[in-house]
C-alpha cells in the first residue's frame, strides 16, 4: 500500500506537475492577500509576513524541500515586482531593499525547511509505526499458520494488502521450485504476464543463484515481476514475485517487503525443522517398534513352535503305542498352538496395516448379537473352564461397523480376560444403547489390573505382570490393536474397575436405527 511519497517519487513528472500547481495556486492566493493588505494601508513588513506564511504552507502540502526553496525565491521576486517602488519592475529605488529581500528569502526558506523537516519526521514516524504494525500482524498470522501452504498464504495476503499489487509465490520442495501460486490484488485475477514460461524461468534463476532478479533490477530486467528469494542462512524455501507495473517500489515498501519475506523464511524454516523432527521421531518409534517386535517374536514364538514340534515328534515316533485319549490331547495341543500362531499373525498383519495407514473400513449396519456370537465361535477352545455370558438390553441392537474388525476386537478382549483370570472365572458381555452410541462392556471377576498398569494397557508391546503360571506370554498387540480399530470407527475404548474385583473393558460404536418395512 503506497501511503507516502518519497524523494524519488517527488521528482516524477506527475508529482512535479501536481506540486507545481499547488505552489502557483498558493503564491497567487498570497499575492491577492498582499494586494488586499496594500490597499488597506498595511506596511510592507505585514505583506512580507503573508509571503512567509505562504511558503510555510507550501512546504507542508508539497513533497520536497525543493518546492520550499523555489517558492521562497519566487516570493521575493513577486514581492519586489508588485509591492516595491517602482511597481511592476524588478528594480528597487531604496538601497535597503536588497537586505530586505535577503532577509525575506532566508526567513521564508528557513521556515519552510523547518516545516518540511517536521513533516518528514512525522512521515517517518508514521511509516515506522505502520511497519511495526504490519510486521506484528504478519508475525501473528505466521505463528498461527501450519504448513508451507498456510505460511505462504499468510505472507502473500500481507504483501497484497501492503503493496496493492499481484503477488506470486513459488515454494521449494528442497531441490526445485513447485508450481506458482497466484494471489491477485483484486477480482480481475492474476496478471497474465506473471504466468508465462519466461517468468517461471526468472523465478528458477533466482532460486538457483540466491539473488534477486526481474523488473527493477539489473538481472533479467525484461520480466514483469520483481523476484526475491525466500531464504534463511541455511536454505532457500522459495521465491516471491511482485508484479511491478509502471510504478516502482519505494524504499519504505521495499523495506517492509524484505522484512515480511524474512519472517516468512523463518516460519518456513521452523516448519521444516518441526517436520524433520517429527519424521525422525516417527522413524525412531518405528525402529523401536520393529526392535520390540523382533525381540518379542524371537522369544515368544519359540514356545508354541517347540510344543508343536515336540508333539509332532511324539506322534511320529510313538504314535502307534499311544492310546486314543493321549492322541486326542496331543492333537488338541497342536491345534491350540497353531491357532495361537494364526491369531498372532492376524494381529501382526493388522498392526502393520494400521502403521502403514492402510486399514480400510467397510462399515455397515450389523446386529450386535450376531457379531458377538461369531466372535465367541473363534475363542480358543482350550479355555472352556471360563463361563461366558451375553446380555443385551434390546433384541435388535444395530451398530455401524466393519464386522470383521469388531469381531477381532471382541476376540482380543475376551482372550485377554481368559488369559489373566483363573479357571472358573466369569466373563460377561453386555450391550446397550445410549443416545447415538452402542455401548459394549466386557467384564470379568478376576483379580483386576493394578492401577500403575492401567495407563499402559492399550500401549503396543505392553504385557501385564500378573499372568497365571501356565499362560503363554503375549506380544502385547491385542489391546493396542483394539484401541486403533475402535478409534478408526469414531468410537472410544476405556478400562474401569469391576466391583468388588475384576475389570471392565468398554467400547462404543455409532448406533444404527432399526427400519421396519411393512
Automatic annotation (TrEMBL):
Keywords tagged on the record: ATP-binding, Kinase, Membrane, Nucleotide-binding, Phosphoprotein, Transferase, Transmembrane, Transmembrane helix, Two-component regulatory system
Pfam families: DUF4118, HATPase_c, HisKA
Membrane topology designation: Multi-pass membrane protein
Domain Histidine kinase: 296-513
GO cellular component terms attached to this protein's record: plasma membrane
EC number assigned by the record: 2.7.13.3
Subcellular location: Membrane
SMART domains membership: HATPase_c (SM00387), HisKA (SM00388)
Main localization (coarse): membrane
PROSITE patterns: HIS_KIN (PS50109)
Catalytic reactions on record: ATP + protein L-histidine = ADP + protein N-phospho-L-histidine
InterPro entries: GAF-like_dom_sf, HATPase_C_sf, HATPase_dom, His_kinase_dom, HisK_dim/P_dom, HisK_dim/P_sf, Histidine_kinase_KdpD, KdpD_sf
Entries under PANTHER family matching the protein: SENSOR PROTEIN KDPD
Name under which the protein is recorded: histidine kinase
Species the sequence originates in: Hungatella hathewayi WAL-18680
Amino acid at each position: 500500500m503506497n501511503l507516502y511519497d518519497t524523494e524519488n517519487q517527488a521528482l516524477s513528472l506527475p508529482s512535479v506537475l501536481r506540486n507545481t500547481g499547488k505552489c502557483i495556486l498558493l503564491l497567487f492566493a498570497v499575492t491577492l492577500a498582499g494586494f488586499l493588505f496594500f490597499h488597506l494601508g498595511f506596511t510592507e513588513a505585514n505583506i512580507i509576513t503573508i509571503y512567509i506564511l505562504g511558503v510555510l504552507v507550501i512546504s507542508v502540502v508539497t513533497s520536497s524541500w525543493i518546492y520550499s526553496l523555489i517558492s521562497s525565491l519566487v516570493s521575493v521576486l513577486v514581492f519586489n515586482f508588485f509591492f516595491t517602488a517602482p511597481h511592476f519592475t524588478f528594480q528597487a529605488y531604496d538601497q535597503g531593499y536588497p537586505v530586505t529581500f535577503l532577509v525575506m528569502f532566508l526567513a521564508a526558506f528557513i521556515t519552510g525547511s523547518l516545516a518540511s523537516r517536521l513533516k518528514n519526521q512525522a512521515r517517518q514516524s508514521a511509516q515506522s509505526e505502520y511497519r511495526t504494525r504490519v510486521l506484528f500482524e504478519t508475525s501473528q498470522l505466521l505463528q498461527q499458520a501450519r504448513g508451507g501452504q498456510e505460511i505462504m498464504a499468510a505472507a502473500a495476503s500481507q504483501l497484497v494488502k501492503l503493496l496493492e499489487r499481484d503477488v506470486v509465490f513459488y515454494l521449494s520442495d528442497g531441490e526445485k521450485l513447485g508450481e506458482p501460486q497466484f494471489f491477485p490484488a483484486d477480482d480481475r485475477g492474476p496478471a497474465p504476464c506473471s504466468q508465462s514460461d519466461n517468468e517461471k524461468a526468472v523465478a528458477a534463476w533466482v532460486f538457483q543463484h540466491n539473488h534477486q532478479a526481474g523488473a527493477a533490477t539489473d538481472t533479467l530486467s525484461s520480466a514483469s515481476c520483481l523476484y526475491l528469494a525466500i531464504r534463511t542462512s541455511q536454505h532457500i524455501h522459495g521465491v516471491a514475485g511482485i508484479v511491478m507495473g509502471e510504478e516502482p517500489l519505494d524504499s519504505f515498501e521495499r523495506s517492509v517487503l524484505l522484512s515480511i519475506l524474512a519472517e516468512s523464511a523463518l516460519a518456513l524454516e521452523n516448519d521444516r525443522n518441526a517436520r524433520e523432527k517429527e519424521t525422525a521421531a516417527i522413524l525412531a518409534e518405528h525402529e523401536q517398534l520393529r526392535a520390540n517386535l523382533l525381540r518379542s517374536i524371537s522369544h515368544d514364538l519359540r514356545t508354541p513352535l517347540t510344543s508343536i514340534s515336540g508333539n509332532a515328534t511324539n506322534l511320529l515316533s510313538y504314535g502307534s503305542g499311544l492310546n486314543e485319549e493321549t492322541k486326542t490331547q496331543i492333537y488338541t495341543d497342536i491345534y491350540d498352538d497353531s491357532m495361537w500362531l494364526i491369531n498372532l499373525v492376524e494381529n501382526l498383519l493388522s498392526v502393520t496395516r494400521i502403521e502403514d495407514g492402510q486399514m480400510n473400513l467397510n462399515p455397515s449396519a450389523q446386529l450386535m448379537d450376531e457379531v458377538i456370537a461369531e466372535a465367541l465361535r473363534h475363542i480358543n477352545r482350550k479355555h472352556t473352564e471360563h463361563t461366558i455370558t451375553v446380555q443385551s438390553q434390546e433384541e435388535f441392537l444395530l451398530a455401524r461397523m466393519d464386522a470383521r474388525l469388531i469381531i477381532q476386537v471382541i476376540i482380543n478382549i475376551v482372550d485377554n480376560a481368559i488369559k489373566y483370570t483363573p479357571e472358573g472365572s466369569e466373563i460377561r458381555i453386555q450391550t446397550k444403547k445410549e443416545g447415538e452410541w452402542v455401548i459394549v462392556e466386557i467384564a470379568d471377576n478376576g483379580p483386576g489390573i493394578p492401577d500403575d498398569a492401567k495407563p499402559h494397557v492399550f500401549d503396543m508391546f505392553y504385557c501385564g505382570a500378573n499372568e497365571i503360571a501356565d499362560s503363554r506370554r503375549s506380544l502385547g498387540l491385542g489391546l493396542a490393536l483394539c484401541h486403533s480399530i475402535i478409534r478408526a470407527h469414531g468410537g472410544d475404548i476405556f478400562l474401569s474397575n469391576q466391583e468388588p474385583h475384576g475389570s471392565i473393558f468398554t467400547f462404543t460404536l455409532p448406533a444404527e436405527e432399526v427400519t421396519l418395512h411393512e
